[in-house]
From TrEMBL:
Key words of the record: Membrane, Transmembrane, Transmembrane helix
Origin species: Streptomyces doudnae
Skewed-composition ranges (Gly residues): 112-122
Protein name as catalogued: DUF6479 family protein
Basic and acidic residues composition bias: residue spans: 43-57, 81-92
Region (Disordered): 43-122
């Protein structure tokens, strides 16, 4: 900015600054009122909220609980003399249900967590 700009800004009247701030506040307040009215019109055009009898409810059999199962990796099929596998030859998941469903238990004398130290099994 040049010196002339500073001189003009310093010499302006206080009522001009107040008027500009008041007009700016009116513009902002008007924009907020318009935005609220616009949002209310958009909400009125939306489909109504579901009634209490239309809300989701538990199945007749009761709550559905999660199941636990031991998973093991499903290896990629080996190509025998061919260049590549086609999509129908690849399974849809990367793992499958394991043959052994017994949970792995902690054995006394083994290390605690994943590489937490200790002597491990002997």
């Amino acid at each position: 900015m040049s010196n002339a700009t500073y001189v003009l800004a310093a010499g302006s009247n206080g009522w001009l600054n107040v008027t500009v701030a008041f007009v700016g506040g009116l513009i902002i307040a008007g924009a907020l009122i318009w935005a609220v009215q616009f949002g209310m019109r958009v909400r009125d055009r939306e489909s109504p909220r579901p009634r209490p009898d239309e809300q989701p409810h538990l199945p007749d059999t009761g709550a559905v609980y999660e199941t636990r199962e031991m998973r093991e990796p499903d290896e990629m099929p080996v190509t025998t003399g061919r260049e590549r596998l086609t999509p129908h030859e690849i399974h849809h998941t990367g793992s499958r249900t394991g043959a052994d469903q017994s949970r792995k238990r902690w054995l006394p004398g083994s290390s605690g967590s994943f590489g937490s130290g200790g002597l491990g099994r002997r």
